[in-house]
Specification:
This protein is an all-alpha fold and about 350 residues long. Helix 16 packs parallel to helix 18 and helix 21 packs antiparallel against helix 22. About 40% of the residues are buried. It is flat. Helices cover about 65% and strands about 0% of the residues. It has 22 helices and no strands.
């Protein structure tokens, strides 16, 4: 491309005409000829975030010719769009880009260190793990935190000891470590270390520990002062006595989470759920109505039919879906009666429920 034609494209990108901007940006990003590379690099050096973004996107067509160290500082640019474009450039760069980021972790410039560690978490390249483990012991808390967050996305068991060790760090790092440990297979010793976090002074850390321990979380946490923690317990516990307690929790979000957990586990806790159909909080009534769809008890049907008159359409929809799963003549008649509604979404749900119930005949 001739320099004059390239300059016209840059002028269009900087114009106020959005259509011209988009057309010119697309043309620049399609360039692949060697001559245009020098033009792109020249504009990239100018202090204009909009054109920097476009030039970084355009450079992805020249990945084999780039010295990625020259573009490292764009990963910590003030403009979010520039940072995102730089990250995509590095992600297309293969091993040379990874090597540059690994080297960036040792930079004396803190923003470069941070950006390099953060980018390696996006890459999920196994070769980055040793560098990230090293960064997790940085003297800078921000670097340690982002290193632990980045390690958390790697499924490799090699990262687990570092994440467990980070549970003794400052609160932000502990929280990041627990997030990274969620869903992993941990040894008894590692689970014991995680359990210590259940007594942490911060409720978000205690709740994060619950999600790591999952069904192994002790039921004694029903006494935790934080609804946030009790709600987490309701989501993971498989203990019926614990769920019964949580369904009667003073906090409505905990009651709702407990009822939802009962539904997911297909438990038959009718005596616990039926009173929740009269709960003052709509979300609790809806969760209870959904959870009762697994019931085989006759007394559940009239209770759910009553919910078809609830003032909240979400509860009527949940009750209809549950009734459809249960089936029966009384259910079919009740759903036909409830089908006359002006709410098109609710009408569709009732129609589907009716078809399900009729299919059970």
């Amino acid at each position: 491309m001739k320099k004059s034609a390239f300059d016209d494209l840059i002028a269009a990108i900087r114009s106020d005409d959005i259509a011209r901007q988009e057309d010119a940006a697309n043309k620049v990003c399609a360039l692949k000829d060697p001559v245009s590379l020098s033009y792109i690099l020249g504009v990239l050096k100018e202090d204009d975030p909009l054109t920097q973004r476009v030039m970084l996107w355009a450079l992805r067509n020249y990945s084999a010719e780039l010295d990625y160290a020259q573009y490292l500082h764009y990963l910590s640019a003030e403009d979010l769009g520039v940072r995102e474009a730089a990250l995509m450039l590095f992600m297309d760069g293969g091993q040379p880009a990874v090597d540059t980021l690994v080297a960036g972790i040792s930079s004396a410039d803190m923003p470069t260190q941070y950006a390099s560690v953060q980018a390696l978490g996006q890459f999920r390249v196994p070769g980055a793990i040793p560098a990230l483990i090293s960064a997790s012991s940085s003297s800078e808390q921000d670097i340690r935190e982002i290193a632990v967050i980045s390690l958390g996305v790697y499924h490799d068991q090699a990262v687990v000891p570092t994440l467990v060790s980070a549970l003794k760090d400052l609160p932000a790092v502990r929280l990041a470590a627990l997030s990274g440990l969620r869903g992993r297979q941990l040894s008894a010793e590692e689970l014991s270390v995680v359990s210590v976090s259940l007594t942490d002074e911060r409720e978000d850390i205690r709740a994060a520990a619950v999600y790591v321990l999952d069904a192994l979380t002790p039921g004694t946490l029903t006494l935790d002062p934080s609804p946030y923690v009790r709600r987490a317990l309701a989501s993971v516990t498989a203990e019926i006595p614990v769920l019964i307690i949580l369904c009667g929790d003073p906090d409505s979000s905990v009651r709702s989470a407990a009822a939802e957990s009962v539904r997911k586990q297909k438990l038959h806790l009718e005596d616990t759920l039926l009173p929740l159909l009269s709960d003052p909080v709509p979300g609790v009534r809806r969760a209870a109505a959904s959870a009762l769809g697994n019931s085989e008890r006759p007394d559940v049907v009239p209770a759910l039919i009553s919910c078809l008159a609830d003032p909240k359409p979400g509860i009527r929809a949940a009750a209809a879906a549950s009734l459809g799963s249960i089936g029966g003549e009384s259910v079919i008649q009740a759903l036909k009666d409830a089908a006359n509604t002006q709410n098109p979404i609710l009408a569709g749900i009732i129609k589907n429920a009716l078809m399900t119930a009729e299919g059970k005949k």
